[in-house]
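Predict the assembly for these two chains.
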Amino acid sequence: MASSQHVLLSPAELAYLHASLSLTPPIRPDGRSPTQFRPLVAETGILPGTNGSARICFADGTEAIVGVKAEVERTRTRHDFPSLDEGAEGDDDDLEDNQHDVVKGDNDWVEMTVEIPGYRDDDAGTVFLSAMLSEALLADGEFTKRLWINRRFHWKLYLDILLISPPLSYPLPLLSLTTHLALLATRLPRLKSEGDEDPLFDDDWAAAAYLYPRPAAKKGSKKTTSFATPTARPPVTLLVMAVGNNIIFDPSKEELAVADVALAVSVGESSNPSSSTAMDIETEETKGHHNLRILSVRTIDPPSRLTPPGIPNASNSAYGANAAGAKDTEKKKQQQEQARTAESEAVEGVWKAPRGGAKPLVLAALVQKVLEKGGVADEVLDALDGVDLN
Amino acid sequence: MPITILPPKAFREPPRNLHHDSDDVMSDASSDSEDSDSQPGGVSLDSGETIHPRKRRSAATTSGSTFTKRPKTANITSSISVPRSAIVTPGERITTDPQWMRGHGTYLSSATLGEQAITSSLAGIVTRTNKLLSVRPLRARYTPEVGDLVVGRIVEVQAKRWRVDVGSTQLAALPLSAINLPGGILRKRTETDELQIRTFFAEGDLVVAEVQQLFQDGGAVLHTRSLKYGKLRNGVFMAVSGTGGGSGVVRSRRQVWTLESANNGGPIDVILGVNGYVWISKHVDPVIPEEAKNQQTGITNLEEVVSATMYSSQNDRIEPETMREIARIRGVVTALVENGLRVDEDMVTKGYNEAVEMALVSEGGPEDVYLGGERGEQLAAALTGRLA
């Protein structure tokens, strides 16, 4: 799918980056460990006019803000589901059943816009980003259920995702983390009316309920909450890439430029309480872990495929003896031979764009690494828990 | 811990201007009278510093200067209350008093009743030198000067020249006639050279060059007519341009030097382009091919040989230890820039030694080269403590 913006790097740089990232352990240009994210600054509740908002800022100055606005909207009656209206008027047993079934959402209830400075709204990259973020949110159909008010009304949620700095790296992880925080901080006014009457809300903002209800215990007792009441959370989308057999998280622009494979993995927390408790009992010693599951996986076309290859010295006409003008034809012929092999085979220290698809084993390892218990996604969710919501 | 999330930092005050401290005609006169219009109206960007009585520079009637009032926007009220160093934005009037002369970053506008007002054309801090008012930008692009050593990236190849990105407002030009031909041959550039212009430099290639000449509009013409200059390889690039206020790369005695690295890293070349582009690479002694060795190698001959390898885009073999130390130096430079310190030979060398020591005591051992976030701040604190 749509790739990130084109980065202009010289073949020598690409070769160096690729070589250093292929080492075991890889040496990243900024010295991070393979699973380490860039340090970031996060805060919530920055926009007073929204139902929930968040801002995340990387040390390099990349910054994103997300605002969530909710609006009451009349639900369109569906004609293809006659049971919705007619079935409800039937006998009481059906009504009871319907009350459970009827809490269902529609993907139209969420509208997401992504804005990246310097890019048009309908730019393929922007559209892809927004599709990827909304896909993760809507994938399991649980999210839109939270927007249900009654059978006639629902909340319409507008998510405005703004990158307010130029995109210094592929902004997906940043936008996803910010959206996650904004949704965690989102509160909806408390409903006072009952049943299917026109909704009436509590004026008191203090009484407003979180869209994602927080565990009753506040922080400090994080350990108990995480496995006693598994709370559902918005998804996070992580950008993972592989160079050789090394798996690298949160790649910077330069790193992404030499990636063999890049994946956007959306991870959510399973809200199935029965299975989660069972698993919690099994692995109680690994405390603080989440019951993770994959919501979506997308491959990102790494810009590495579009990079020009480096020219090995053997076929470089401006290099060494070639340039000085090798006079005798015998030598020239020999050099041409060398050049031909250099073109078809990899030469150390010369950049060559990756060819072919991703190896299934590498893809599996990428996903495995994300989902691992106590792995990266776990720790990211834990760290996001620590952000003060206000 | 793969991720560290920090709480937002308080607004950092822009570097204080020296001239303000010596001369307070305009800033202090109105310390108490002007509180009324600067009541906080919303989000405050400041932390503790604003609690001072407001020393606004508006309407200093006693001294005769009439600094115009700002619009009461919420964000701005907090930033102007930074004592004595106000941030102005483009189009903002600084003064209408004719006693002041306009300097860099300002222009005269006659919007109101034929009155000439000095207006800021930049976002920056007002500086005064006697009666000269100028605005120092918070962030600025590089302004080339003749003789500057710059690192640039080729972005465009034209018939007889390359266009090079040097972080300036315009692309610099590198004419085909201003490069060394491989083998050090001295001759007129022919059509053949023009046709194979991409064999010398292609799009994306990094060059280190010198500013030879300036155009009237500020555009630069570069040259690489020295063995020190040319294509870059065996290392990493980083851009720390556009940082105003005393940080970033500053012009200094030596922009290029070789650092003897710790942990068996071997010698490492550091090139600090004046334009804020930095190149850190493995130091490679010029290799003399076998054929050249057989011939007599005079000084002139050596030059030929060295320049013959000038246009290679193939990296030499680089040991992991060297790569690690290169990453460490890169981390040091990033930490310096992020903490608002200047980047020059002295600071980088000291910072590197400090970083090596820091790594020894860190849990990752000497192989731990990470210098982001808190470690960068630690490093900066250690450096400023030592220098002070």
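Chain A is about 30% helix and 20% strand. The domain at 2-310+351-385 of chain A is CATH 3.30.230.70 (Ribosomal Protein S5; domain 2).
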